[in-house]
Design a protein that fits this description.
This protein has 108 residues and is an all-alpha fold. The chain folds into 2 domains: 8-64, Arc Repressor Mutant, subunit A, CATH 1.10.10.10; 67-103. Helix content is 71%, strand content 0%. The chain is built from 4 helices and no strands. The protein has helices at 9-22, 29-40, 45-59, 67-102. Helix 1 crosses helix 2 (29-40) and helix 1 packs across helix 3. The longest helix is centred in the C-terminal third of the chain and has 36 residues, at 67-102. The radius of gyration is 27 Å and the shape is rod-shaped. 11% of the residues are buried. Keywords: Coiled coil. This is Transposase. Pfam families: HTH_Tnp_1.
């Protein structure tokens, strides 16, 4: 399980918004991210870059798997594992009962 981010969601949204707003003032996007990260006290510029890329993917301006799609895939993988486990139990039960039917029974 992933640990919770030390940065609140509102700060992340604000930082991403600020990068978009100040981008024209800098030569590169990285320089804009570095300035915003410093201004907001975000540990590393890489953290902010990750947030910006995630926002771009979620908004459809950059190709990739959105947060919603990732959550769906994770839920489907969990469901698939549960179904495989249940299938294994059912196969074991079926073979047990099939073996019981093959045994000769003494009638009293």
């Amino acid at each position: 399980m992933a640990r919770a981010s030390p940065y609140p969601a509102e700060l992340r949204k604000r930082a991403v918004r600020m990068v978009a707003e100040v981008r024209p003032d800098y030569d590169t996007e990285w320089a804009a991210m570095k300035a915003v990260a410093t201004k907001l006290g975000i540990g590393t510029t890489e953290t902010l870059r990750t947030w910006v890329r995630r926002d771009q993917i979620d908004s459809g301006t950059r190709p990739g798997t959105t947060t919603e799609e990732s959550a769906q895939v994770k839920a489907l993988k969990k469901e698939n594992a549960e179904l495989k486990r249940a299938n294994g139990i059912l196969k074991a039960a079926a073979s047990f009962f099939a073996a019981e039917l093959d045994r000769p029974h003494l009638r009293s």
